[in-house]
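Preliminary data (for renewal application), guanosine-5'-triphosphate complex.
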Amino acid sequence: MNSGFPLPPGERPLTERIDALLSDAEHRDNPLRAPLAELYDAFSDHLCQLERITRISDHYQAAERDRGAGHAVNYRRQLRRLEKIVRISDQYQGMLRELNQRLEWLSHRDALTGLPNRRHALKRLREEHLRAQRGGRSFVIMIIDIDHFKDINDTWGHEFGDHALTAVAARLAASVREYDVCARWGGEEFLVMLSDTEPCTAGDNAERLRACVGSDPFIIGERQLRITVSLGVGSCRPGEELAELMKRVDDALYLAKHEGRDRIAFAR
Ligand SMILES: Nc1nc2c(ncn2[C@@H]2O[C@H](COP(=O)(O)OP(=O)(O)OP(=O)(O)O)[C@@H](O)[C@H]2O)c(=O)[nH]1
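Predicted structure:
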């Protein structure tokens, strides 16, 4: 038997030498022969066990290596999945953000004309009113109403009336500054608020808006149409409530209508 242990050069393996000793008839009666044989058998058994354990351990290590590689593959797959989920979630959140911004924008807009709606106009009015009451610069408001709009609807139809409303809205919006408010106040009425504006300039501003609608005809579909507007104009008095100012401007508009339309009346 060869244990596989390294041997001093030129020497026979120990196991071979023990084999030779044990099978030599000359040593048959030697009292050391039996214990040597016993020791040799025990050694051979241990060697066998050691080899078996080594084989099992090699097997086990190889299996662990394979399992480790399997885990790594699984881990990378899961990582890729997670990265994909994160990407999708980012996209989804971006879309939600855009949707929210769009909804926020829409909640302040009039669906027909695209102008800010009454709710938005009121919010801006309150802010500006508060600023003016705290000693900030004054502002001017105008309620602008299309004249005889019912006739336009009745003559050309409601859809045509919608186009006319939208066209008037576009001219008014183009005639105010970016930080002013030009909103649809309701029906065929618009509200313009000129922030940081002295009351003494209200007349010129109002005339500019009246003229931007009334001076040139509108082309709607295949028709040419003259449209005029009436305006009630006012600015806030010191300590005046917003509701009072709005009432005075409304009354002024009524006056402008009453006095013949296509004109401006100032709040008293
Ligand atoms: N097409 C259309 N018509 C609208 C809209 N909102 C309100 N109107 C119409 O606007 C008309 C307003 O009529 P009135 O209040 O009598 O006023 P008017 O005919 O303009 O007369 P004055 O204001 O007195 O010059 C009504 O016929 C409403 O139906 C809208 O969104 N689209």
